[in-house]
Amino acid sequence: MPIIRQLSPVTINRIAAGEVIERPASVAKELIENAIDAGAGRIEVVTAGGGKTLLRVSDDGAGMTAADLELAVERHCTSKLDENDLFDIRTLGFRGEALPSIGSVAELRIETRHASEAHGWSLTVSGGARGDIEPVGLSAGTRVEVRNLFFSTPARLKFLKTERAEAGAVTDVVKRLALAHPEIRFSINGADRSPLDYPGLAAGDFRARALQVMGRDFAENSIPVDVGREGVRLSGLAGLGTYQKANAQYQFLFVNGRPVRDKLLIGAIRAGYADVMARDRFPAAVLFVDLDPHEVDVNVHPTKADVRFRDPGLVRGLIVGALRRALAEAGPRAATTNNAATLDALALSARPRPGGSGSVYGGSSRPAAFDWRTAPERPLADAALAESRDFADAPTEAADGYGAGFAEPAQARFDVVREAVAADARPGAASVEPERQARPLGAPRAQIHETYIVAQTEAGLVIVDQHAAHERLVYERLKATIARGVERQLLLIPEIIDMAEADVDRLVERAGELAEFGLVVESFGPGAVAVREVPALIGKSDVTALVRDIADDLAEWDQATRLREKLDHIAATMACHGSVRAGRRLKLEEMDALLREMEAVPSSGQCNHGRPTFVELRLADIERLFGRR
What we know:
Layout: H1 9-20, H2 24-37, E1 42-48, E2 54-59, H3 66-72, H4 98-105, E3 107-113, E4 120-126, E5 129-130, E6 134-136, E7 141-147, H5 154-157, H6 163-180, E8 185-190, E9 196-198, H7 206-214, H8 216-220, E10 222-229, E11 232-239, E12 244-245, E13 251-255, E14 258-260, H9 263-272, E15 282-283, E16 285-290, E17 296-297, E18 308-309, H10 312-329, H11 336-349, H12 379-390, H13 410-422, H14 434-437, E19 443-448, E20 452-456, E21 460-465, H15 466-484, E22 488-498, H16 501-509, H17 511-516, E23 520-523, E24 528-535, H18 543-557, H19 561-577, H20 588-600, E25 614-618, H21 619-625
Parallel strand pairs: 1-8, 13-16
Antiparallel strand pairs: 1-2, 2-7, 3-4, 3-7, 4-5, 4-6, 8-9, 10-11, 11-16, 12-15, 13-14, 17-18, 19-20, 20-21, 21-25, 22-24, 23-24
Helix pairs in contact: 1-4, 2-6, 6-7, 9-10, 12-13, 15-19, 15-20, 16-18
C-alpha cells in the first residue's frame, strides 16, 4: 500500500522548475523581468552555448540588502505582491518562484548591492544546495549568473534545441521586453551571437524603439493604432496588409507591459486582417493592451505567458475593430518591401545570363550606348504606332467587364495606345492632366499585356494588377450589401440539429444576432435546435456543420464569428469570379475610373487573398537601375 510522504524542498523546487524554467530563454525572461521591476535603467545580457553554458544578467537597479538576498532564493518570497489583493498586480514578477527554481536545476550566483549598504553581497545555489552569503565589491545593482543549466536534471537537456536556436530564443525575449520598455537600455552579447544594443530612449519613444528592434521595413510599412473603450486601451503599430510574413514571430503582444502569447489576442489579430491577408500568411504588429489589473488574470500559468480577461469579448472586439479601421484609414498603400522586391527582380533580369547569347542584351554585358543625335525623332512613338496597326482590325471584346463594358471600336483602342505611349515623346504631344498625376495612384498611361495598368505619378510610376484591384472593389461592395441586410432563404423542411443543452442555450440566447446574418434558429426541445432560414448566399452548404461551428465559437469567444466569416468568404469568392479578368483590354477612361475608385475604397492596396494590387516605383529607384545615380 503506497505511503503518503512530504516531498523534500529540493524536489519541490525541481518540480516547480519544470513549469517555470523550460529553456535558457525562460531564465532570461525571469531575470530581466526582475531587473525591470527593480527600476533598472540599463540591462546587459551575456550568453554562451545558447544560454545553456552561461547566462548572465546585470542591471543598475535598486539591488538587495543582505536580508533580502537571504530570502530571495526561498520559494514564495517576494516583495511585489499585496496579500490582501491578489489581483492588483502591477509588476512583471510576483510569484516568488524564479530564483529558487533556477537554483535547483543550475549553478546560480547572485551578486547585489543596495544603495543603503557600503558593499555588496553574493550568494550561490547549486542544484538546490545553498551556500553562505559573503561580502563582495560591487556598484549599485544586481548581477545574476546562471551556469550549466539543467546539470542536475540531465534528462531536460535532451529536450533543448541547438545552441543557435536557444540563442535566438533568448534574443527574442530581449526584443519583446525592449519593446515594452523603450526607456531602458538593453544589450546582449556573447561568443554564440552577434551583439545587439538598444539604447534607452528619452520619454520612452516607442516608435524609435520599434525602429531599433523591428527594423526600418516595419517602421515604413506600419500604421499607428490608439483606441480605447470602456477602460481598455489598445495602442501600438500594425503592419500594412501587404507587409506579410511567413510566420507569427513578428507579432509582439503585451498586456499591461507584460509580453504574452495569448490565443485570444492572436485570434483577434487574425480576424482583424482576415479581409486583407491569405490564411497561410501572417501580419506583423506590436500591440499593447492596457486595462485595470483587476480586469485581467495574469496568474493562469507559472510562465505568465497566458492571461484571462474578465470581458474577453470587449478586448477581442476592440482589437478586431481597431485593426480594420486602421487598415481602412491607411488608404491604398503598397508595402515598400514589394517595391524593393520588384526593383531587385528588374535588376536581376537585366544581368547577363551565363553563355553570353542568352543575355537580355543579346550576348553583350551592356547595351550599346544610345546616341540621340542619330536616332529617329520618335523611336518609341513610331514603334507604338506600328504595333497598334497589328491589332487595329482586331474584333471587339464582349461587354461584360468593368465600368460601362469592354466593347470598343478598334480606332478607340488605337487612340488610347497612341496617347499613352507617345505622350512624353516630344513637346506638343498629349500630356497627363496635372491633377490626376498628383493623386496617390497617378494618371493612367498604358495597359501592358492587357493585365497591368501603368500610371504616372509625380514621384515615379505605379503598376496595377487590374484583376486583383477590381476584385477588392467588388468585394467591398458585396460586404456593404451584406451589412445593409442579408437576404434569407426559407427551408421547406426545417433542419433539426441535435446538440448539447449548453450549446442550444447559447444559440437561442443569440438568436437575434444570428437572424441579422440571415440564420434563423429556435429551440426544438432540450437538446436540439431547428434551423428555419439560412442566408441566401450560403445556398446548399452543410447547415449542420455551420451551426455546430457557430456554437463552438459562442462557447470560446462568446461571438458568432463563424457565420460572418462564412459570408465574407462567399463574398470574396463571388468577387473573384465577378471582377475584371486578366487579358481584358481597357479604355483609358476605364483605367482612370479603376484608379480613382481604388483611392476611395479602404484596403484597396491588396486583394481578398492578400496579394498586392499595385506596386509603386520611385523615379530615383528606376534611375539607379540605369546607372543614373
